[in-house]
Amino acid sequence: MSKAAAYAELMRPVNGVMMGIIVIVGAFVAGHGRLPPVASIVMGFLVAYTLTSSAMVLNDIVDVKIDMVNSPGRPIPSGRVSVAEAKALFWLTSAVGLAISAVMGLPELTVAAVSYVDAVLYDTVTKRTGLLGNFMVAFTGVSPLLYGAFMGGGVNMAIVFETLMIFLSMVGREIAKGVADVEGDRLHGVRTLAVVHGPAKASLASMAFYLAAIALSPLPPLLGIANPIYYGVPIAAVDLVFIYESLKLVRSPTKDVATRVKDVELYVVPLALLGFALGALG
To answer: What InterPro entries has UniProt attached to this entry (predicted)?
Structure first.
């Protein structure tokens, strides 16, 4: 595998693309079905992509010892990318993302900077705190929606509800991820709910956060701020997946099941974003 491919794996481009799409969805929802100029869309996408990449790279730099247990094939523990090379990539992606956001305006720069600081603090300080770390990861997941909202005209009530839904579901996924990684986390003193209270109780907590997100999902159409059909159909499908996968983890809180559950729950995010976007029509 080439060095470029190893760098790409380190940056987790799928995550960056997903965050870029969330920026665009945020702008579309805030604009009530209208998008800002193409140049703004491209710049907003690049900010999300580069800052997400920087967080992914820093995570692997900090977690190299844990990854030797949980994910020995990752670029750094496998020796395909050195720590020095990873640090250079981290600083480059950080500088590009923050510079572009500064050009776009003060609200955008503020959201980007707060999200960036949050991600750095998580990777270097609070990751081992468990639930607090889960909350911080979830904030980095919703910040692109807020970034896009400022691009599109400002935060409205639809953005507020959708931000809360993403936040709660991401906390649920992070807790489930802790169930999957409990062996390596326990070895290195990471105090996830699965480590502190056991995988069974952590699985119940994960499901509780998903159910909280699901409970909010009917409110936008009921309040008249989202198209009930265009929004309702895809979001209902996402809710059903979340319920099914959460129940599966509660019934069998093992590493293999947790790994599959957290992956499946990530795969339905595009469907949720589609529902948010379509809900802004009409």
So the answer is: Prenyltransferase_related, UbiA_prenyltransferase, UbiA_sf
For 39-62, b where at least 16 C-beta lie within 10 A, e where not — what string?
A: ebbebbbbbbbbbbbbbbbbbbbb
| Interaxial angle between packed helices 3-11 and 13-30, expressed in degrees from 0 to 180 and rounded to the nearest 10 | 40
| Residue 31: closest CA among 207, 153, 131 | 153
- Distances from the Cα of 100 to the Cαs of 23, 26, 50, 93, 95, in angstroms? 14, 18, 10, 11, 9
Alpha carbon distance 229, 178 (integer Å) = 35
- Dump pLDDT digits (tens) for 180-219: 888 777 877 788 888 889 999 999 999 999 999 999 999 9
Q: Report d(CA 20, CA 24) in Å as an integer.
A: 7
Residues 6+ apart with CB under 8 A from 242: 169, 172, 210, 213, 214, 265, 268
Domains, the chain: 1-155 (1.10.357.140), 156-282 (1.20.120.1780)
Rounded distance between C-alpha atoms, residue 65 and residue 71, angstroms: 10
- The residues near 174 (Cβ < 8 Å, ≥ 6 apart) are 133, 134, 137, 138
